[in-house]
Amino acid sequence: MQSVSGDVHPEVSRLSFVLCYEVRMLDTLVFGSVVFPLLAALAVYFVRGDAARNIIVPVSVAITAAAALGLAGLGSFSYSPQAILGISLNGLITVLDFALLGFIFLIALRMGNLLIMGLTVLQVLGMVYLDFFLMDHGTQVTGFYADSLSLTMVLIISIVGGLICFYGLGYMKEHEEHLHLAKSRQPRFFFFMLLFLGAMNGLVLANNLSWMYFFWEVTTLCSFMLIGHDGTDEAKTNATRALWMNMAGGVAFVAALMFLQKSMGTLSVQDILAKSAAPGMKTAALLLPMAFLCFAGFTKAAQVPFQSWLCGAMVAPTPVSALLHSSTMVKAGVYLVIRMAPAYQGTMLSAAVAIFGAFTFIATSALAVGQSNGKKVLAYSTIANLGLIIACAGINTSAAIAAAVMLIIFHAISKGLLFLCVGAIEQKIGSRDIEAMRGLFKVMPRTAVITVIGIVTMMLPPFGMLLAKWMALESAATATAAMPPLVIMLALGSALTVLFWARWAGVMLGSTVPGENPPSEHQPFTVRLPLLLLAGGAVGLSLLSPFVYSMLVAPATALYAKATAYTVSMGVFENNAGVFAVYPLFLLLGVGFVYALRAAKKVGPEAASLPYMGGSQKVVDGKIGFNGPMNGFVETAAGNYYMESLFGESKLSKSINVIAIVLLAVMLGGVL
Amino acid sequence: MLTFIAALIGLALTPVVGGLLAGVDRRVTARLQSRFGPPILQPFYDVLKLLGKAPMVVNSWQVMSAYIYVMSSALAVLLFFMQGDLLLLFFVMTIGAVFQVVGALSVPSPYAQVGAQRELLQMLAYEPLIIVVFVGISMATGSFKIADVYAMEKPLLLSMPFLFIALGYALTIKLRKSPFDISACHHAHQELVRGVLTEYSGPHLALLEIGHWFDVVLILGLCSLFWHTSIVGMVALLVVTYAAEILIDNICARMTWPWMLKNVLGVGLVLSVFNLLWLYVS
Questions:
Q1: Does the complex come out with an ipTM higher than 0.85?
Q2: Where are the domains of chain A?
Q3: Where do the TM regions start and end (chain B) (predicted)?
Q4: Structure pTM?
């Protein structure tokens, strides 16, 4: 790993050449990741017309992805651009901060929403106090700092996010045909989608917390705009809810900034983390702002009791949900919690964060069991996985952080894929309900199989998600604080996830013909390609998980703890606590799977039998049923158990929210 | 390499042991019910006969699911004999359980569908218990590796009696014994025909039966970890455990899934927490 710095004055000429080259390279790459998406967004907004958009979007996401790969190739760096086009960056971002808050205030004013106005005013006041009274403008704060964690995030945001934008091209065309709009609103849509990518890249690369706050608020605004994109009453309500919840997180963020500036004298993440490592530093002066930052992260990651904004976000067109759930927005929340993890390592705050995350994991997994709405299942499963990531951050050992980063990576791919699948399914069959997807294989063979692949990669070995879950469970067992409740919650939550995934995969494959070979489906290229790439990515990257771990995850965990999380040799993960043999498993399961598939192919129509219905099974007009009362034909029907009386939202949400608020109060109160 | 060969031999013997166990089980059960019962080898005759039949299926996914089930169960047993990671072998076993459900759900038959839903609920009941038992083992031995259990000086049962009972719950569910024979049952008192297994016949049913033998041996293997210090102790523990299973099966009525969830998770988790705290303190 090489490290370069933007403000070095090298004496040696060769070194200076290398550094200059790398700084310029860095300039370009950071620009390509953060600012370029904004320019592309402006281009899509102003150059209207399908043809232009169909060129601008793919080209710009390709450039952003290339920049991300370039950055990853360059390795970790710290970099302090001073000015852009002659304007001081610190000043520019301060001005933009206020402009952004002012804009949000205007939106709230137009909606007449006092809550959001109040939250905005609080942030403005906080920022005024911070910028004009607390901040010592003489000290330099490194603007950008990237390590493996940030670079992993940049890769996910730019590549998975880029694919989702690309998918949006085909999806939105059909979406708008459906709505019969007089004037296309796609320029606005893609403006915010691309801006979102840039802001996310900025957020994860920022080392200066006040810059990070700016990008944080930009993602809040983008998500508000995108959730409300369709302009229906429901969309507006849900967008407003998302806005106030995230603004509440913003207030916590500003509070953290003020406390940190006052107690630490700096807003540089690296300096804060370095200072926190000194003995005796983990007092309330540091932990209180950390608790506030965690709180901000929880709101953004839609943890309980803020889960409703992410569930409501699915009124938006599918690419928005896919983007919010997989590669952006919610991942910003968990990123912040993980980023700050060393600062609260070994404290009660860390234990509280772990318990809180584990509670979200089990609570939202239970909520997912009660849902037949496919998108809602995905939404709750996202929140559950984020809860698991936060629990890992709270457990705060190197193995747990490794688990958290692995979860971020593999969840982004599989969840992005599943959202895109449900979007494609919904456009074809007109429903997102799991019951409506019974026998989907007949109608959409390829998409059905890809969806099943998505589900399997979410829940079973040898895929990356499960590897990460295995790491999470094993590190929970070695947690030093609050271990028993943590383990029980993770064990129960993990069993609940198996339940809702398995039944969804099963019903989609429904069929009554051995060797059924339905005609292949037609799909726009921009929809089909991301599905194939993400499905391939989910499987392929799992196969490469030992490399993913050594190249991206292990260096990220090295920052958190001296101990190596896992040693990897010949594709086998091992540490003191356990051993996970990725390659041998892949090999054996792969061979077995191919064998199973071949056996399945061999059974032809000659072996066909009807489902058993007590001996009176019957087929009428191709429909399967039985000979019922009065010799009449009764078609069979079946439904999954959703058990609303146990797992329904109306049954659980209230008590979950109460418990979550208590946990949050304990977390915030506990540091004092 | 030697462990691998030994593990392969163990793997090959597993279905034999599993089948014999099933035979003994049927015989003892029959005696408890004042019947004579079938020959001990009857399960093998049954499976061999099933294997010889022509396949009859509703769709191809069933076939795929049956193969994946038996494969993953066998792989889990292999991992056990290789003294691998407990949690990992549990996850591998889950593959089979999931595909058994997927196969049943792929058929629009009311019996299979209801059976599949109930099978999922049974999994919901036993999975957390097994995970917690493994966590308990890792607390006692310092790792999830089976090899480290054998390095212990004292039997685990002494420090984890309550977790052993929790594992007993899981074993009863996995064995499809009353009161937990909710998703499929060996007896004829089923309103559900054979529930999750209804749509399987001939060679594919035989595969599922063999897979089931693997699962049963695996869970008994896990029980055996609780008295690893002497062969006699281990065998005694297993005999007592299995005899208790047969007894419970014969004196219990089949209960409903809400009852199962409440009791197994309620009682099982309380016992587990108690035992975990005990381990935690010591």
A1: yes
A2: 345-608+639-672
A3: 61-81, 86-105, 125-144, 156-173, 225-248, 260-281
A4: 0.95
